[in-house]
Structure formats: structure tokens, C-alpha cells
Amino acid sequence: MSSPAFAGSCALLLEADPTLKWNDINEVLKVTSRQDEFTKATPIRFGYGKVDVYSAIKEVLKRSSVAPVYSYDEKGVMIDVNNGNINIFVAGSENYNATIYNLNGMKIKSASGSDDVVIPVSDLEKGIYIVNVANGKLNKSAKVVVK
Has residue 8 been placed in a domain? Predict the structure, then answer.
């Protein structure tokens, strides 16, 4: 299963930037791989460590000179709910605002930043929320589930 999973990881990186060469992918994976007690114990088996595709895609988007971040399909915006946080990444962005709304349109929380913004949501009730990411050039909304 490791070969298909790794091939899929490389395909995701190429989707983020189709101009990548094999050595670019190797460098990004080397920089973003995770080390833990298992990978350090057997470095021959694990090489640089365990592939962290999320970090690798973020790294590719930061380095990419392909297509502007603010294109019609708003490539370069990633919204992820993980460990009680909503993690928002906008590649190459100046400051932007991230706002969470409930399904009635009421503003629940907001935060501002550039590149990575983390909004804690462990205090919210379980349910579906709308996340809006916006600045002068960008306006993207997505539904997220808080479990």
C-alpha cells in the first residue's frame, strides 16, 4: 500500500504545481517529512521520515510561481478541521480575515493573519458552520463540520 499512497501524494503535489520536477518533489518531501521515535529508530527504512502531505502541499503553494493565488477557482486556499481547531492556509496572502458563521448567518468567531490562521473551535457545539476567508482580492466560503 505504501507505493500507491506515495504516488498519490506526489500527484497531489503536481496538482498544486504542475511544473514540479522530480527533484523539486524530493526537496519538498525532505523538508516537510515528520520524524518520530519510529523513524529515528530505523532511518534506513524510513529515510527522511513519514510523508506529511498537508505540509508538503502548503510548502509547494508557498514556493509556486504558477498561476496567481487569487484565480477564479481560488487555488491555494486550504481549510481543515483538526484537533479542535479550524486551520486556514492561504498561500502567498497578505493579511486576510477568517470568520466562522453558524447556519443562521450569525458571526461566531473571527481571526486575522497571513498564510496560516488557526481558530480554536473546541468550545463550539457540534454541527455545521460556514467559514469565510476574505481580503480585498479573495472571498471564499466553505462548510465545515465540528465534531
Answer: yes
Distance between first and last Cα of the chain: 29
Amino acid at 61: L
Q: How many structural domains compose the chain? A: 2
Locate 45 and state its grid cell.
Answer: 527504512
In the structure, what pLDDT confidence band is assigned to residue 135 with cuts at 50, 70 and 90? Answer: confident
| pLDDT for 67 | 41
In angstroms, the CA 32 to CA 143 distance is: 28
Task: Based on the fold, state whether residues 93 and 134 are members of the same structural domain.
Answer: yes
pLDDT at 94 over 60: yes
Residues 83, 139: one domain? yes
pLDDT tier at 43 (50, 70, 90 boundaries)?
low
Alpha carbon 68 to its chain's center: 17
What global pTM score does this model have?
0.59
Q: How far apart are CA 97 and CA 133, in angstroms?
A: 6
Pairing mode of beta strands 139-146, 85-90:
unpaired
* Structural domain boundaries, residue 129: 77-146
